[in-house]
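Field notebook, page 278. I keep forgetting to write these up properly, so this time I am using the form the group agreed on. The chain and the ligand, adenosine-5'-diphosphate, are recorded exactly as supplied. Prediction of the bound pose follows.
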Amino acid sequence: RILLNSVLDTARENAKGIALTIQDITREAELNEAKSQFISNVSHELRTPLFNIKSFIETLYEYGDALEPEQQREFLETANRETDRLTRLVNDVLDLSRLESGKAYAFDAVDLHQAVDQTLRTYQLNAKDKGITLRQEIAPGLPTIWGNYDLLLQVLANLIGNALKFTHEGTVAIRAYCLDECDLDEQAQMVRVEIADTGLGIDVEDQVGVFERFFRAENRVHTLEGTGLGLSIVRNILEKHGTQASLVSEVGTGTTFWFDLKVFHPATVIGNMSLDEL
Ligand code: ADP
Protein backbone atom coordinates (compact mmCIF):
# COMPACT_ATOMS: atom_id res chain seq x y z
CA ARG A 1 0.00 0.00 0.00
CA ILE A 2 2.86 2.38 0.90
CA LEU A 3 4.41 1.78 -2.48
CA LEU A 4 1.08 2.34 -4.22
CA ASN A 5 0.52 5.63 -2.33
CA SER A 6 3.95 6.87 -3.23
CA VAL A 7 3.39 5.97 -6.90
CA LEU A 8 0.04 7.80 -6.78
CA ASP A 9 1.67 10.88 -5.14
CA THR A 10 4.32 11.01 -7.82
CA ALA A 11 1.65 10.65 -10.51
CA ARG A 12 -0.37 13.50 -8.91
CA GLU A 13 2.71 15.75 -8.78
CA ASN A 14 3.49 14.97 -12.42
CA ALA A 15 -0.12 15.68 -13.42
CA LYS A 16 0.10 19.06 -11.62
CA GLY A 17 3.32 19.81 -13.49
CA ILE A 18 1.72 18.88 -16.80
CA ALA A 19 -1.34 21.06 -16.04
CA LEU A 20 0.95 24.03 -15.28
CA THR A 21 2.94 23.45 -18.48
CA ILE A 22 -0.28 23.29 -20.50
CA GLN A 23 -1.37 26.57 -18.85
CA ASP A 24 1.98 28.19 -19.78
CA ILE A 25 1.73 26.96 -23.36
CA THR A 26 -1.86 28.21 -23.64
CA ARG A 27 -0.87 31.63 -22.27
CA GLU A 28 2.08 31.82 -24.67
CA ALA A 29 -0.15 30.79 -27.58
CA GLU A 30 -2.65 33.51 -26.60
CA LEU A 31 0.11 36.13 -26.43
CA ASN A 32 1.47 35.04 -29.82
CA GLU A 33 -2.02 35.16 -31.27
CA ALA A 34 -2.53 38.71 -29.88
CA LYS A 35 0.85 39.75 -31.26
CA SER A 36 0.22 38.46 -34.77
CA GLN A 37 -3.29 39.95 -34.73
CA PHE A 38 -1.70 43.31 -33.81
CA ILE A 39 0.90 43.04 -36.59
CA SER A 40 -1.78 42.14 -39.10
CA ASN A 41 -3.93 45.10 -37.96
CA VAL A 42 -0.97 47.49 -38.13
CA SER A 43 -0.04 46.29 -41.63
CA HIS A 44 -3.61 46.75 -42.74
CA GLU A 45 -3.78 50.25 -41.26
CA LEU A 46 -0.44 51.23 -42.83
CA ARG A 47 -1.47 49.97 -46.23
CA THR A 48 -4.42 52.37 -46.66
CA PRO A 49 -2.55 55.69 -46.34
CA LEU A 50 0.42 54.26 -48.28
CA PHE A 51 -1.87 53.18 -51.11
CA ASN A 52 -3.52 56.62 -51.17
CA ILE A 53 -0.19 58.49 -51.21
CA LYS A 54 1.13 56.30 -54.00
CA SER A 55 -2.06 56.69 -56.10
CA PHE A 56 -2.14 60.47 -55.84
CA ILE A 57 1.57 60.89 -56.54
CA GLU A 58 1.43 58.44 -59.43
CA THR A 59 -1.54 60.24 -61.00
CA LEU A 60 0.25 63.57 -60.68
CA TYR A 61 3.41 62.07 -62.13
CA GLU A 62 1.66 60.44 -65.10
CA TYR A 63 -1.13 62.89 -65.88
CA GLY A 64 -0.16 66.02 -63.92
CA ASP A 65 0.26 68.10 -67.10
CA ALA A 66 -3.33 67.43 -68.10
CA LEU A 67 -4.70 68.56 -64.73
CA GLU A 68 -5.76 72.06 -63.73
CA PRO A 69 -3.38 73.68 -61.18
CA GLU A 70 -6.22 73.62 -58.66
CA GLN A 71 -6.65 69.87 -59.09
CA GLN A 72 -2.92 69.33 -58.82
CA ARG A 73 -2.94 71.24 -55.54
CA GLU A 74 -5.86 69.18 -54.26
CA PHE A 75 -3.99 65.94 -55.03
CA LEU A 76 -0.88 67.18 -53.28
CA GLU A 77 -2.92 68.26 -50.26
CA THR A 78 -4.46 64.79 -50.00
CA ALA A 79 -1.08 63.09 -50.31
CA ASN A 80 0.24 65.43 -47.58
CA ARG A 81 -2.70 64.67 -45.29
CA GLU A 82 -2.23 60.94 -45.78
CA THR A 83 1.48 61.32 -44.96
CA ASP A 84 0.48 62.98 -41.67
CA ARG A 85 -1.86 60.08 -40.96
CA LEU A 86 0.92 57.61 -41.64
CA THR A 87 3.26 59.51 -39.31
CA ARG A 88 0.66 59.52 -36.52
CA LEU A 89 0.10 55.81 -36.95
CA VAL A 90 3.80 54.95 -36.89
CA ASN A 91 4.30 57.17 -33.80
CA ASP A 92 1.39 55.55 -31.96
CA VAL A 93 2.56 52.03 -32.80
CA LEU A 94 6.09 52.89 -31.60
CA ASP A 95 4.73 54.44 -28.38
CA LEU A 96 2.62 51.38 -27.69
CA SER A 97 5.42 48.89 -28.33
CA ARG A 98 7.80 50.94 -26.14
CA LEU A 99 5.19 50.91 -23.37
CA GLU A 100 4.78 47.17 -23.69
CA SER A 101 8.50 46.42 -23.87
CA GLY A 102 8.75 46.24 -20.08
CA LYS A 103 11.02 49.34 -19.97
CA ALA A 104 11.14 50.86 -16.48
CA TYR A 105 9.81 54.41 -16.15
CA ALA A 106 11.05 56.67 -13.37
CA PHE A 107 8.33 57.89 -11.01
CA ASP A 108 8.48 61.14 -9.12
CA ALA A 109 6.33 63.89 -7.67
CA VAL A 110 4.28 65.30 -10.58
CA ASP A 111 2.71 68.76 -10.60
CA LEU A 112 -0.55 68.16 -12.48
CA HIS A 113 -1.21 71.89 -12.78
CA GLN A 114 2.02 72.24 -14.76
CA ALA A 115 1.24 69.15 -16.88
CA VAL A 116 -2.26 70.43 -17.76
CA ASP A 117 -0.87 73.92 -18.56
CA GLN A 118 1.77 72.46 -20.85
CA THR A 119 -0.77 70.25 -22.67
CA LEU A 120 -3.35 72.99 -23.08
CA ARG A 121 -0.78 75.31 -24.62
CA THR A 122 -0.39 72.90 -27.56
CA TYR A 123 -4.16 72.70 -28.10
CA GLN A 124 -5.09 76.36 -27.61
CA LEU A 125 -4.83 77.27 -31.29
CA ASN A 126 -6.76 74.22 -32.42
CA ALA A 127 -9.58 75.00 -29.94
CA LYS A 128 -9.68 78.65 -31.03
CA ASP A 129 -9.94 77.63 -34.70
CA LYS A 130 -12.92 75.41 -33.86
CA GLY A 131 -14.52 78.03 -31.62
CA ILE A 132 -14.32 75.72 -28.58
CA THR A 133 -13.62 77.03 -25.09
CA LEU A 134 -10.84 75.21 -23.23
CA ARG A 135 -11.45 75.48 -19.52
CA GLN A 136 -9.03 74.57 -16.79
CA GLU A 137 -10.40 73.90 -13.31
CA ILE A 138 -7.54 72.83 -11.09
CA ALA A 139 -8.39 72.85 -7.37
CA PRO A 140 -6.31 75.44 -5.51
CA GLY A 141 -3.48 73.88 -3.52
CA LEU A 142 -3.72 70.59 -5.42
CA PRO A 143 -0.95 68.32 -4.09
CA THR A 144 1.57 66.68 -6.40
CA ILE A 145 0.85 63.12 -7.43
CA TRP A 146 3.07 60.05 -7.79
CA GLY A 147 3.77 59.30 -11.44
CA ASN A 148 5.85 59.75 -14.57
CA TYR A 149 5.51 63.30 -15.93
CA ASP A 150 6.06 62.51 -19.62
CA LEU A 151 3.69 59.55 -19.62
CA LEU A 152 0.99 61.60 -17.89
CA LEU A 153 1.49 64.38 -20.46
CA GLN A 154 0.70 61.79 -23.11
CA VAL A 155 -2.47 60.69 -21.31
CA LEU A 156 -3.63 64.30 -21.08
CA ALA A 157 -2.72 64.98 -24.72
CA ASN A 158 -4.61 61.92 -25.99
CA LEU A 159 -7.74 62.64 -23.94
CA ILE A 160 -7.80 66.38 -24.61
CA GLY A 161 -6.98 65.76 -28.30
CA ASN A 162 -9.93 63.35 -28.56
CA ALA A 163 -12.25 65.73 -26.72
CA LEU A 164 -11.44 68.45 -29.27
CA LYS A 165 -11.62 66.08 -32.22
CA PHE A 166 -15.11 64.85 -31.35
CA THR A 167 -16.54 68.21 -30.25
CA HIS A 168 -17.88 70.73 -32.73
CA GLU A 169 -19.07 73.40 -30.34
CA GLY A 170 -19.08 74.19 -26.67
CA THR A 171 -16.47 73.46 -24.06
CA VAL A 172 -13.69 71.08 -23.19
CA ALA A 173 -13.03 71.24 -19.45
CA ILE A 174 -10.06 69.75 -17.62
CA ARG A 175 -10.60 69.32 -13.90
CA ALA A 176 -8.31 68.04 -11.16
CA TYR A 177 -9.35 67.82 -7.53
CA CYS A 178 -8.83 65.75 -4.41
CA LEU A 179 -11.19 62.92 -3.65
CA ASP A 180 -12.22 63.59 -0.05
CA GLU A 181 -10.20 66.23 1.70
CA CYS A 182 -6.61 66.60 0.58
CA ASP A 183 -4.96 66.00 3.90
CA LEU A 184 -1.29 65.37 3.31
CA ASP A 185 -0.87 63.65 6.66
CA GLU A 186 -3.08 60.82 5.50
CA GLN A 187 -1.55 58.13 3.27
CA ALA A 188 -4.28 57.03 0.89
CA GLN A 189 -5.19 60.27 -0.89
CA MET A 190 -6.27 60.33 -4.47
CA VAL A 191 -6.54 63.09 -7.04
CA ARG A 192 -9.21 62.80 -9.70
CA VAL A 193 -8.59 64.13 -13.21
CA GLU A 194 -11.55 64.68 -15.54
CA ILE A 195 -11.66 65.64 -19.19
CA ALA A 196 -15.21 66.62 -20.07
CA ASP A 197 -16.49 67.66 -23.49
CA THR A 198 -19.78 68.79 -24.97
CA GLY A 199 -19.21 66.78 -28.14
CA LEU A 200 -20.75 63.97 -30.16
CA GLY A 201 -20.78 61.42 -27.34
CA ILE A 202 -20.26 57.67 -27.68
CA ASP A 203 -23.00 55.12 -28.22
CA VAL A 204 -23.56 52.78 -25.23
CA GLU A 205 -22.59 49.69 -27.31
CA ASP A 206 -19.37 51.36 -28.36
CA GLN A 207 -18.36 52.50 -24.88
CA VAL A 208 -16.93 49.12 -23.79
CA GLY A 209 -14.67 48.90 -26.83
CA VAL A 210 -13.05 52.34 -26.88
CA PHE A 211 -9.92 51.24 -24.98
CA GLU A 212 -9.24 48.40 -27.43
CA ARG A 213 -6.55 48.82 -30.07
CA PHE A 214 -7.76 50.13 -33.42
CA PHE A 215 -11.30 50.46 -32.11
CA ARG A 216 -13.28 53.34 -33.55
CA ALA A 217 -16.81 54.12 -32.52
CA GLU A 218 -19.61 54.92 -34.98
CA ASN A 219 -19.04 58.65 -34.38
CA ARG A 220 -15.64 58.34 -36.06
CA VAL A 221 -17.25 58.97 -39.47
CA HIS A 222 -17.19 62.64 -38.46
CA THR A 223 -13.40 62.88 -38.54
CA LEU A 224 -10.60 61.52 -40.69
CA GLU A 225 -7.98 61.97 -38.01
CA GLY A 226 -7.06 59.27 -35.55
CA THR A 227 -5.46 55.87 -35.41
CA GLY A 228 -7.67 54.00 -32.94
CA LEU A 229 -4.62 53.59 -30.69
CA GLY A 230 -4.87 56.72 -28.53
CA LEU A 231 -7.03 55.22 -25.80
CA SER A 232 -5.11 51.93 -25.66
CA ILE A 233 -2.01 54.03 -25.01
CA VAL A 234 -3.94 55.84 -22.25
CA ARG A 235 -5.00 52.51 -20.74
CA ASN A 236 -1.46 51.17 -20.82
CA ILE A 237 0.05 54.26 -19.15
CA LEU A 238 -2.62 54.38 -16.46
CA GLU A 239 -2.05 50.68 -15.72
CA LYS A 240 1.57 51.58 -15.01
CA HIS A 241 0.19 54.06 -12.46
CA GLY A 242 -1.97 51.33 -10.90
CA THR A 243 -5.18 52.90 -12.15
CA GLN A 244 -7.58 53.01 -15.09
CA ALA A 245 -9.78 55.46 -16.95
CA SER A 246 -13.57 55.38 -16.85
CA LEU A 247 -16.06 57.23 -18.96
CA VAL A 248 -19.60 58.45 -18.98
CA SER A 249 -21.09 59.53 -22.27
CA GLU A 250 -24.33 60.42 -23.94
CA VAL A 251 -24.78 60.76 -27.69
CA GLY A 252 -25.37 64.39 -28.60
CA THR A 253 -24.49 65.67 -25.12
CA GLY A 254 -20.85 64.83 -24.57
CA THR A 255 -18.32 62.61 -22.89
CA THR A 256 -16.34 62.70 -19.66
CA PHE A 257 -13.25 60.55 -19.14
CA TRP A 258 -11.72 60.39 -15.65
CA PHE A 259 -9.02 58.62 -13.68
CA ASP A 260 -7.60 58.75 -10.15
CA LEU A 261 -3.93 59.11 -9.23
CA LYS A 262 -2.14 58.65 -5.93
CA VAL A 263 -1.03 61.75 -4.07
CA PHE A 264 2.73 61.96 -3.62
CA HIS A 265 3.94 61.30 -0.07
CA PRO A 266 7.67 61.09 0.67
CA ALA A 267 6.93 57.93 2.68
CA THR A 268 5.19 56.32 -0.33
CA VAL A 269 8.26 57.04 -2.44
CA ILE A 270 10.57 55.31 -0.05
CA GLY A 271 8.16 52.37 0.07
CA ASN A 272 7.86 52.18 -3.71
CA MET A 273 11.54 52.67 -4.31
CA SER A 274 12.56 49.83 -2.06
CA LEU A 275 9.90 47.67 -3.73
CA ASP A 276 11.17 48.59 -7.20
CA GLU A 277 14.74 47.99 -6.22
CA LEU A 278 14.00 44.56 -4.80
P1 ADP B 1 -8.67 57.69 -32.34
O1 ADP B 1 -7.27 57.84 -32.77
O2 ADP B 1 -9.58 57.14 -33.41
O3 ADP B 1 -9.21 58.89 -31.65
P2 ADP B 1 -8.78 56.46 -29.75
O4 ADP B 1 -8.28 55.13 -29.25
O5 ADP B 1 -8.19 57.66 -29.12
O6 ADP B 1 -8.60 56.46 -31.30
O7 ADP B 1 -10.35 56.50 -29.56
C1 ADP B 1 -11.13 55.40 -30.00
C2 ADP B 1 -12.50 55.85 -30.43
O8 ADP B 1 -13.26 56.26 -29.28
C3 ADP B 1 -12.50 57.07 -31.34
O9 ADP B 1 -12.30 56.72 -32.69
C4 ADP B 1 -13.89 57.63 -31.11
O10 ADP B 1 -14.84 56.94 -31.88
C5 ADP B 1 -14.13 57.33 -29.63
N1 ADP B 1 -13.81 58.50 -28.76
C6 ADP B 1 -12.69 58.68 -28.02
N2 ADP B 1 -12.76 59.83 -27.31
C7 ADP B 1 -13.96 60.40 -27.61
C8 ADP B 1 -14.63 61.61 -27.20
N3 ADP B 1 -14.09 62.47 -26.32
N4 ADP B 1 -15.86 61.85 -27.73
C9 ADP B 1 -16.42 60.97 -28.59
N5 ADP B 1 -15.84 59.84 -29.02
C10 ADP B 1 -14.62 59.53 -28.55
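OBSERVATIONS:
- The beta strands are 108-110, 132-138, 145-147, 170-179, 190-197, 246-250, 254-262.
- The pocket of adenosine-5'-diphosphate is lined by residues 158, 162-163, 166, 197, 199-200, 202, 210, 215-217, 219-220, 226-231, 255 (CB under 6 Å).
FOLLOW-UP: compare against the apo run.
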